Amino acid sequence: MILTGNLLWVLVGAILLGIAAGLNGTFAFLQKQSLVGDAAAHAALPGIALAYLIVQQKDLPILMLGAAITSTLAVYMIQWIVSQSKLKADGAIGLVLSVFFGFGIVLITLVNQGASGNQSGLNDFIFGKAAIMAKSDLIWLSGSALLIILMCLLFFKEWKLMIFDPVFAKGIGLPVERLRILLTALTVLTIVTGIQAVGVILMAAMLIIPAAAARFWSNHLGIILVTSAFFGALSGAFGTIISSLRVGLSTGPIIVLSASSLFLLSYCFAPTRGLLSKSRKKKVVKQHKVVQEATSHE
Amino acid sequence: MNEFWVILTGSLVGITCGLTGVFLILRKTAMIADAISHTVLFGIVVAFMITQSLNGFWMLVGAAIAGILTTYLVQVLQTGGLQEDAAIGVVFTTLFALGILFITLFAGNVHLDVEHVLMGEITFVPWDTWNVFGLTMPKAVWMLLIVLLLNVLYLVFLYKEIKLSTFDPVFALSIGLPIVAMHYSYMTLVSLTTVAAFDSVGAVLVVAMLIGPAAAAYLMSKSVPGMIAWSMTIGVTAAITGYYLAKLWNTSIAGMMAAMIGVLFMLVFLLKPHDGWLWKVLKQIKLKNVNAS
Predict the structure, then answer these.
(1) A5-296 maps to CATH 1.10.3470.10
(2) Chain A residues close to B30, C-beta within 8 Å
């Protein structure tokens, strides 16, 4: 395989995106909000279509701005519905997700029927097109991913406190509400950054899977974050390389499947929390019990 | 006549999904239904790879198996120490990615394209007909009627059991109800409903139809029968209004039906007498005025 100029850029972009999503996804995971990320990713679609309808050209930053607005709207709508009615979080998430996506499809159909016809290429946002992204878009993606990584490192301590002990955090004078908003904003930025590469549906996977896999390796937030970022980077790299080997393999699904493989490995073989070591521990306990019983009956 | 079949299909989706969705909301398993609607793609692709045909029956079987597999895998990961939301997220994105990969690898030039799966093609429903007992109706209508019948039968025979295992699982278990089997059988029913519906209206609308009307009905009514009635009514209303609005603006019918569900839910959420959001806000303002004077 030859690393041509553009492929190298795709590789860098995918790795950086993997790290950014890995870091950010961990915070969402620990707040038990993994599926909110899924909803926010689906909700990016109407924003993209709406932005296109307004400016009538495929200007990436403006499309991304539109995506960011509707994603944020979806996140707050879920919170609003849950806090103001008796509907539970899962129902609110599912409702917002499907309705926003439905609106997105309505708008995209309108765009595709417009003067510019099917040339808009907005459908790419549903499934992503990492392998054929333009270099300028990739530079934009990498820059944005770097910003997310930097922010995660900068606010690591504050978010850690906010997630695990919000009362104490408030007590020592941390602006908890503002920190929470910042974290939501960063999640939205991650989604918006990634959707062009892997698509709205699989972007959720980038946020959820590395974090879930990393959780099996440690109980320390620092180590989980590093592992999650590492898994994200690894799946980004694998996905890009494997999909470049054969024509017709789309990058998005391969990146996700690489992440899933890493998850499976972690689920089975991670020390202490993995399946294998758990069943071994159970066996040891059982043996111990048998021995105890045998000796106590004497 | 074509218009009639399209509206009938949409309404049948509304009725069937509305009925199934009620217990999804009550059992707090709405997101598993969302997961199933994504993984059904995987089941259909695998069924296609094995049988090399787009036969409706095998698709139904494949999708039902995929649905059970999803439910099972989520359960396994949860018992393996993963929190529920992450377990659902991991399972459905993985199977969905596998489904897309298989399509691009093995079924690239067949009618089975991913966009069709997501958005459906309800406008083509009237042309794909089945003739059963001398009665010619669109295939989608037949499939929906069969699944609706299954749903009704399930609720008629197991109404008490499902209600008990939903509201008081501990008591249900103590009197010997097989609550795990109830969970899986119900999820199988959800998968079957999903498949029957999404061939015509796409995965997105299925999720919207399963969750949206039932969620709105949950706010409207306090009893299960009341919820079922509201849920079906809202589903059908969304289907019919969605169809005409889509025709008016010349856009995606399935997408517009999903959007209408959102609109109807918001109406209930905001305006429902006494505990709608606007009522609460008005009450607060009134209270403030009373206090001020």
Answers:
(1) yes
(2) 88, 90-91, 93-95
Are B85 and A32 in contact (CB < 8 Å)? yes
pLDDT average per 10 residues of sequence, chain A (298 residues): 68 89 90 85 88 81 88 91 87 90 86 61 67 75 88 86 85 85 88 82 87 89 91 91 78 88 90 80 82 74
Interface of B with A in 146-205 (CB under 8 A): 204-205
Half-sphere exposure for B293 (CA within 13 Å, toward CB): 5
Going from N- to C-terminal start, the domains of chain A cover 5-296
Subunit contact B219:A85, Cβ cutoff 8 A: yes
The CATH superfamily of B2-292 is: ABC transporter involved in vitamin B12 uptake, BtuC (1.10.3470.10)
CA distance B3 to B283: 45
For chain B, residues with pLDDT lower than 70 are 1, 54-56, 107-121, 123-124, 127, 130-131, 134
A257 touches B: beta carbon within 8 Å = yes
What is the reported pTM? 0.86
pLDDT at A170: 84
Per-position DSSP letters for B141-191, written without gaps between them: HHHHHHHHHHHHHHHHHHHHHHHHHHH-HHHHHHTT--HHHHHHHHHHHHH
Q: What angle do CA B180, B181, B186 make, to 5 degrees?
A: 100
